[in-house]
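I am writing to request your help with a piece of structural work I have in hand. Thank you for your consideration; the sequence and its C-alpha cells are set out here:
=====
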Amino acid sequence: MFETMPPESLLGVVRGLDVDEVPVIERGHVRIEAVKALDVAIRAAQAEQASQIAALLDERTKLMVGTGDPVISVIGEVAMARTIGPAAASTQIELAMALQRLPQVHALFAAGTISEATARAVAVETRSLHVDDVVVADGEIAAKIAGMTTTQARQCAARVTIGLDAEAAHDRARRNRADQ
C-alpha cells in the first residue's frame, strides 16, 4: 500500500488516512502497513541525519585545521541541535564516521532495510578492521543482513570480521571486556 511512496510524502499521507472508509475487517491491516512504512521512513531519516553529521564533521575538520578539535565542536553542535547529551552526540558521530567506511551498509540503512541499531552493531563489530578489509567486509555483510535482527546482524559482522582478520576480532573482544 505504501511501499512505493517516497518517505518525504509518507507522513502527510498517513496523517490524512481516513480508515473509516476502509471496511472494519481491513483497518488493522491498513494501520500495520502505515506503521511499517513509517518505520522505513524513520530509518531513511536517521541515515540522512548520519550523512549530514559526517558532512558537518568533514567541513569542520577542513575549517578548523590547527585551531582545535573538530570532533569536540561537532559533538557540541549535534548535542545542541538534537537536545541530547554530549555522550549521545558522540555516539551519533561515531556511527556517522563508521557509515562512511561502510557505504553498502549505509545504503541499506538509507533505504530503510536495516535499523539504526543494526547499522551501529555492524559498525562496532567492524571498527577494528584495516581499511582494506573494511571494503571486503562491507560487501559481504551488506549482502547478508537484510531481514536479520540486530543480534543476527551483529553475529554475522563478527563472523565476517573474524574471517578477514582474527587479530582485529581479538582486539575488539579485548576492548569489549575492558568496557564491562
In short: The chain is about 80% helix and 0% strand.
